[in-house]
Every structure is written in C-alpha cells, then in structure tokens.
From TrEMBL:
Record-given protein name: Potassium channel domain-containing protein
Membrane-crossing residue ranges in chain numbering: 29-47, 59-82
Pfam family, one: Ion_trans_2
Lineage: Eukaryota, Metazoa, Ecdysozoa, Arthropoda, Hexapoda
GO biological process: monoatomic ion transmembrane transport
Organism this protein belongs to: Ranatra chinensis
Amino acid sequence: YLYINVFFRYVYGGAVLFGKWENWGLLDGAYFCFISLSTIGFGDIVPGDMIRQDEGIELSFIFCSMYLMLGMALIAMCFNLMQEEVVHKIRTCGDTVRRITRCNRS
C-alpha cells in the first residue's frame, strides 16, 4: 500500500504549495490537485487567477505543468504497481487451488 501513500502525499504536497501560492485553502488545493491529476479537470479552480500579470503568471503555469506531468507519471507508475500486485496475488491463489485439487485426487 506504499503507492497509495505516495499518491496521497503527492496530492497533499501539491495542495500545500498551491494553497500558499494561490491563496487557496488546503481543501481547495487538494481538490485542484486531485481533479487535475485524475485528468477530470472541471476548470472551476485554475492556478494563476490570483496572480496579476506582472507578478509572474508564466512561472505559475510552468510550475503547475511540471507538477501535473510528474504527477501523472507517478499515478501511472502507482497503477502499474497495483496491477502487478493483483496479478501476482491471483496467480498465487491459482497455484494454491491447483495444489489443493491435486492433493484431493490422490
């Protein structure tokens, strides 16, 4: 369950960073991170709304893009690890069932 922990820590870290940078609450930051990383993207909360044009909106968008690209790669890795674990458990259960049925035939 390490991958679930990694995912929630990544969302929490993003929520804290975006919350401080955009003057959002922790819940709004977590909502933005989860919705964006899950590629739902409603567009109701957008980074850069609170930043004036001369204060570095480009930096905000670059940071947000990097956070989202790294996060999507992290989520893909977590899903792959979960899939491998499920496949391993199913194979182990299948092997156990085969052994049990072989023993009962003797």
